[in-house]
Amino acid sequence: MKISSISKGDILAFKGKDEKFKTIFCTSTYKERSPHHFTFAGTDISQDEKPTIEKVVESNFWGIGNSVNKYSSFFKEEEIKQMWNLHPEINPYHLGSYGFLIWRKDFLKFRDNFELIGNIEIINNLDKNGNGSMNSSSWESLNNVFTNNFAQTMNQRGQQKYRIKAILKNKNRLQ
Question: For residue 100, which of 3, 168, 22 has the smallest C-alpha distance?
Answer without folding.
Answer: 22
